[in-house]
Amino acid sequence: MTYNPALRERAANDVDGQRIAKGYSWQQLAEHLGKPPVWTVAALLGSHPMTAEDAERIGALLDLAPETVRALQRQPYRTADAAIATDPTVYRFHELLAVYGPAFKALIHEEFGDGIMSAINCNVSIARRAHPGGDRVVVTIDGKFLPYEWNAAE
Amino acid sequence: MTYNPALRERAANDVDGQRIAKGYSWQQLAEHLGKPPVWTVAALLGSHPMTAEDAERIGALLDLAPETVRALQRQPYRTADAAIATDPTVYRFHELLAVYGPAFKALIHEEFGDGIMSAINCNVSIARRAHPGGDRVVVTIDGKFLPYEWNAAE
Amino acid sequence: MTYNPALRERAANDVDGQRIAKGYSWQQLAEHLGKPPVWTVAALLGSHPMTAEDAERIGALLDLAPETVRALQRQPYRTADAAIATDPTVYRFHELLAVYGPAFKALIHEEFGDGIMSAINCNVSIARRAHPGGDRVVVTIDGKFLPYEWNAAE
Amino acid sequence: MTYNPALRERAANDVDGQRIAKGYSWQQLAEHLGKPPVWTVAALLGSHPMTAEDAERIGALLDLAPETVRALQRQPYRTADAAIATDPTVYRFHELLAVYGPAFKALIHEEFGDGIMSAINCNVSIARRAHPGGDRVVVTIDGKFLPYEWNAAE
Amino acid sequence: MTYNPALRERAANDVDGQRIAKGYSWQQLAEHLGKPPVWTVAALLGSHPMTAEDAERIGALLDLAPETVRALQRQPYRTADAAIATDPTVYRFHELLAVYGPAFKALIHEEFGDGIMSAINCNVSIARRAHPGGDRVVVTIDGKFLPYEWNAAE
Amino acid sequence: MTYNPALRERAANDVDGQRIAKGYSWQQLAEHLGKPPVWTVAALLGSHPMTAEDAERIGALLDLAPETVRALQRQPYRTADAAIATDPTVYRFHELLAVYGPAFKALIHEEFGDGIMSAINCNVSIARRAHPGGDRVVVTIDGKFLPYEWNAAE
Amino acid sequence: MTYNPALRERAANDVDGQRIAKGYSWQQLAEHLGKPPVWTVAALLGSHPMTAEDAERIGALLDLAPETVRALQRQPYRTADAAIATDPTVYRFHELLAVYGPAFKALIHEEFGDGIMSAINCNVSIARRAHPGGDRVVVTIDGKFLPYEWNAAE
Amino acid sequence: MTYNPALRERAANDVDGQRIAKGYSWQQLAEHLGKPPVWTVAALLGSHPMTAEDAERIGALLDLAPETVRALQRQPYRTADAAIATDPTVYRFHELLAVYGPAFKALIHEEFGDGIMSAINCNVSIARRAHPGGDRVVVTIDGKFLPYEWNAAE
Amino acid sequence: MTYNPALRERAANDVDGQRIAKGYSWQQLAEHLGKPPVWTVAALLGSHPMTAEDAERIGALLDLAPETVRALQRQPYRTADAAIATDPTVYRFHELLAVYGPAFKALIHEEFGDGIMSAINCNVSIARRAHPGGDRVVVTIDGKFLPYEWNAAE
Amino acid sequence: MTYNPALRERAANDVDGQRIAKGYSWQQLAEHLGKPPVWTVAALLGSHPMTAEDAERIGALLDLAPETVRALQRQPYRTADAAIATDPTVYRFHELLAVYGPAFKALIHEEFGDGIMSAINCNVSIARRAHPGGDRVVVTIDGKFLPYEWNAAE
């Protein structure tokens, strides 16, 4: 049942094509919406549903097709794409998880107890940090700790 | 040719067993070495080689077998383990990459140009942030930006 | 031989597009048919064949193409889609099976003997349960126990 | 780095072997601990860490090796095992997700908004329901709804 | 080189669509050709080439496109489709092989010696058997035993 | 959590080794138990649990280790093994499903309605049929039809 | 980067469709070119580039589209297709490699030393051999032995 | 259920170790048995069962353990091993199938009709052919053609 | 989210088709741009973004569609394509890594310490080396060594 | 049939352990044998067979077990190991093939015609190149070009 990913993908193509044609940066689109950049790009590329207001505002700015504006409001499937994971820019993050995943797990359990960092109640940001040895990408992931709570339902 | 992973794995088991038996936290082991916690746990679980001095210091503290102390100094294979990636505490980070990977890529290219964040010249930390809605796990990844440089060799 | 999934998929797209355009909730569609919500959505998204009467009733309400109305009556292939399984809302249920699957198996065998819970003679419902700590999703699966019966044919 | 799953697996074997040898049902073990049956079996088979008190109580009842009692307290890797997913008793639940997963997703989003049912703040139970057409297995999953909350960290 | 499967698939779609539109059962198509039902359906869905005579007779009955009539005569690729194998009606047969495959192997070798049951010199039938506990599907596979014959070429 | 398959596998090895050493055919073991041959071999190779009485009777005949006799009574994981599926004697059955699976599906739905042939309430037999062109293996699968019954629980 | 396989595939479809429509056997096409049959069919189905002369000669005979004639001259990607490998006629050759691959390896190394049979400096033929027990397919593979030659570059 | 491959593997190791220790070539073992070399090596490496007489004769020559002599007579699982398929000496044959598989299929169907070359009633040989450009490996596969015969059972 | 690979792929097709139609070699295109050949081909086939100036220069030479000229400037996804890796010309390089990968790793660590050869700050060239035994392909990879530098961020 | 890889793996472990214990670099082992470093390490880690003389010379230097000395002479399986390919030091080379593979293919075909660079008649070296921006790893692959030669056998 892959009935809606194609809609979001076509929308992402329309957004990116118009963005380039009109000369907007992703950063500018985020500012136009007053939303964080990572959230904005993720939403425009199909990983988050947008409100009607946001979708129309971006549609007006980029002169998007009405179909695109509607598609941006669709609840998306956030599926993992194995091909994208092999792109070098994306792959380095997966490699970090292979190297540091067990350490993340050990330290989270030690500090917080048995549980996880939520990927839902969570935000992510990217920043540039100037450095004499070469500027650095700083990614910050900030997610709520969720303890395994069997009895929380009572 | 998987000739050395088994050595590092046995060492990790010895370290973790002795650590629990003697009542040390991972945090304490890191402090004992004067090294960052994520690096320390990753090294002790087999993702980084340790210096002879560090390996012996931790060996003395935890009463590790000589074989373990030697194994901790071996250059490791840092292989990706598909089973570990399904552990819920680890999986949430992979899920974040599925959701935000294309946004990371778009924003890194926009800000820095064509290239990647290094996973080698990079460090990682985990912190606890108190929050009225529930404390939060904050992961910071700080890696040098590497531009695609075809001519750098000249 | 994937000759019919495409038909059902196109039908699902038509249904969902018209549903949104006309402002109906899935719940309302289920009530219009007098059928349980999970069954109704599953059928409209391609996992169950509908009777001609139900297909036409929903077709009239949503102004569906005749092709869609016919497709909804086609016997579907209920194939497992690995991509959909990675969507976070769907994935959590798969994760629960990884964590509790062996316990389900042990307790079913202990209580009922050697056999399975039928996934065919079975129904599924979703409910909202108000809770001071945050409302809860309650999923109930109710399937007939089927014992391994080698001699039942005699 | 699969350094601890083997420990939990050996513990599960010891628990199950002693349980059968001494004639206890899983239900009785759960009652002995005063814990829900699904939680108890999952913990004893390696999916949850036990408190020292619980581990020792079950160890005394079943005459478990000290190594087993310690292993039951280890923080486990809750990895997904593709082979177990093919066991018919377990597979039927995966099949249900293939058939109803998209419907679960549609109805959860419609009722609660964009988000997931937590698999962490969640409990699971199994009950027998007498039925003239053959008794039925009733599985109830009760998990907290978690909305995508980008701004929750502020 | 998937140059011809698409042709057979389009043919199967045309056959099935016309069959439903004209109200014929598969059984009736088999009778019209005077061929066994399993063979007939397999051929019409793309697993066997048909003679020109059979293809034209079925084309006349169902008013098929000339392209379809030609495609039904093409030598097909009989490829295994992993998605179809997950459809519950098909999957149960695969599950039976997982459960009984080693027993089939042991008993065939014991009765016939080292060799296989041919899947080429073989036929398959499906019958309904009335039963007070619920009617039963009876599948019969009848294939020639082929011994490993290294010297048969001499 | 693969805690019990190893036990059943060791038992299968013990059974098969003793069977060969003592010169019994599988057929004779089935007759000794008064059970159908396919069921008997499947059970002894680890796909069905045996009663204490059957396990002891076969243990006495073959002089099996007490551990084996106990293991034969364990509730097994009936997991699908991809390697075994490539053995030529077993593979031919999988190939038949690739060729005839869609035809099975179409004819079962046409004759019985929407549903499946049970793989649980089901038995399987193998027979030899003399034939002038070479003797034939005849496999008969006899399983109860199960209709999709959403309302059966009421 | 799958930019050219589609071109070769469309060409193969055009060739095969015209070949059937005009009533030529593959054997006749090979004779028309004065090339070995296996080479000719492989080239026309997309596994070898053809010279302009050969492509035009076959184009004239079969009345191929100019696009097809050009595509036949394109340097192909000779990619392995897992689906085709499951076709029974093709699969038997893969099965032979599973059964005899290690023997091939042992005997090649014993007779020729450490190295391989070239799949590049190699030809392949198929012949029919009459036999009273049923005619036989005889496949001959004739490839140059290549020793591992580390120093050949000097 | 992989209960017997380990036995055959241990036997293959014993055979190969003793063969090297005693200085016999595979060719000599084949001559000692009076069997074709490919068959002999395949059998000794675990792909064919040997008669008691052959197993004992080779056992006496190589001073094999009694366990090995018995294992060589066991009916083997002839499973496909994906790792072995990547060895360069073996891989070249798989590559040839990727390049020429569709041509084999087209020419076999054209010459013999719809069917396959048997991999069971089949033999395989390897020869050295002297050539001024470098000696060549010549592999000959000689298998009986088997037509798809639905009616053969009558 | 595969929203841009299709654009680059269509561009690659346009480039290659026009290149052949106009009779340019890849080498000539590289010279026209004054760029290294491997870089040029990689960029034109979709693995590197081109500057507007380069894209337009090549567009003018080859008479490319404006869409192609724009696509060549798009930041690409450099995804790994498993099918391409099986093409024999490409596969040999992968095979070399299977054979020599662990040796590369051992020697790099020994010579440079713990770290990697960058695939980003890296260039690659191909040359022909005349040789009496047959000309040789010489591939040179020249990448900066990157040490694991946890503290580089300070 | 994985009957010999374990032997080579154990040998590699013995070699590497003794090498470290006795303080030899890989470079020194290569010099001791008078062989190229990449070849030497590959052979000692199990990718090439050694002559008896070389194996004994390295055995004497490192005080290896006689079993190891024998194993180093065994003809190895050079299998591709998917886990090793994920080690960052090894992975970068695979990534380069994903990025430049199609360019390698296009340029080799353009310069040499249809064919491959041999991975058998091939050698590989690694060198350090001093560079003000950081020293560089230079890998040189030098392999004979092999044209597709169908007629070479004549």
UniProtKB/TrEMBL annotation, chains A, B, C, D, E, F, G, H, I, J:
Top-level taxon of the source organism: Bacteria
Enzyme class (EC, first level): lyase
Gene3D superfamilies the record matches: Cyanate lyase, C-terminal domain, lambda repressor-like DNA-binding domains
Reactions catalysed, as given in the entry: cyanate + hydrogencarbonate + 3 H(+) = NH4(+) + 2 CO2
Assigned protein family: Belongs to the cyanase family.
Protein's job: Catalyzes the reaction of cyanate with bicarbonate to produce ammonia and carbon dioxide.
Protein name: Cyanate hydratase
